[in-house]
Amino acid sequence: MAFSAETCVAMHIGDRAEQQDRVGLFAHPKRPGVMLAVLADGMGGHSGGAMAAEQVIMRAKQNLEVYAPGHETPQELLSSVIDEAHVVIKLTRFTSEKDPHSTAVTFLMEQGRAYWAHCGDSRIYHFRGTETVSRSGDHSLVGELMRKGRLDEEGSLRHPQRNVLLSCLGSEREPRVDYGMLESPDAGDAFLLCSDGLWAYFTDVELASTIQSAPPREAAERLIAMARERAGGAGDNISLIIVKLVPLASAAR
After folding, report:
1. Are 125 and 207 in contact (CB under 8 A)?
2. Other Cβ atoms closer than 10 A to 18
3. What is the pLDDT of residues 5-26, one digit of tens each?
4. Reported pTM
5. Which residue range is the domain that position 54 belongs to?
6. pLDDT tens by residue, 93-113
7. Interatomic CA distance for residues 202 and 126, integer angstroms
8. At 245, is the secondary structure helix, strand, or coil?
9. Staple 53 to which of 9, 22, 188, 236, CB 3.0 to 4.6 Å?
């Protein structure tokens, strides 16, 4: 079935003094049907995290502009964004008094296929209707404990070290990058990129149901409002990108 992509990019500062998340949604300047979504959650004290996250967005935009599918694979593009941002963020440590770090999650649509990559605990979800087809694994202490079966989903949300990352951009160690792809996405599929300021307050079913029940902008507004209410005045920065595939007839309406 032919489909079109409905999208929305949304952010909220939460209860923090500064917005250190960054998001971007870019179309290829010369190749129709090629779209890159990117989200970064910066860390590193006042302005340091914002600087780090901004580097991820800049790399994504610049690398997409010179992306040539005949000479570079989708995974190579996504890898270059994360790897080059990591190097630049590390270099800024020597030119400032900051210690900047960032997560990164990238999502590429090209020729009817979907590709993604992530590092850190910002997530990408793939929903089909209200079903969660896949969810990225967090590169965090809590994520590792869950993978080893030593912590369940409910316990992870209360763990005192739930914000400790094992991999991110800007650290001394090379970032761990995980990849995914969908060969034949179709109408009814939806993708959510988001920072922990959003996903920490929802079950997968709640996220999928909200995105399924409304257009992307309305769904984003609902999710942010619910996250703010559930945070109880102690919420982190919120950022999200929704990419929802709909039949062409629905898009026309």
Report:
1. yes
2. 13
3. 999 999 999 999 999 999 999 9
4. 0.93
5. 3-252
6. 777 767 899 999 999 999 889
7. 15
8. strand
9. 22
φ and ψ at residue 178, rounded to 5 degrees: -110, 145
Task: Please count the residues of the chain.
Answer: 253
Number of helices (H) and strands (E), helices first, in the chain? 8, 11
Tokens for 124, please give them. Answer: 């990408």
How many structural domains are present in the chain?
1
Q: Which pLDDT belongs to residue 99? A: 84
Alpha carbon distance 63, 36 (integer Å):
10
What is the domain-level CATH number for residue 193? 3.60.40.10
The amino acid that residue 147 corresponds to is R
Please state, in angstroms and as integers, the Cα–Cα distance from residue 68 to each residue in 26, 30, 84, following that order: 15, 10, 18
Q: What is the DSSP string of 15-59?
A: TSSS--EEEEEEE-SSSTT-EEEEEEEEESSTTHHHHHHHHHHHH
The pLDDT of residue 51: 93
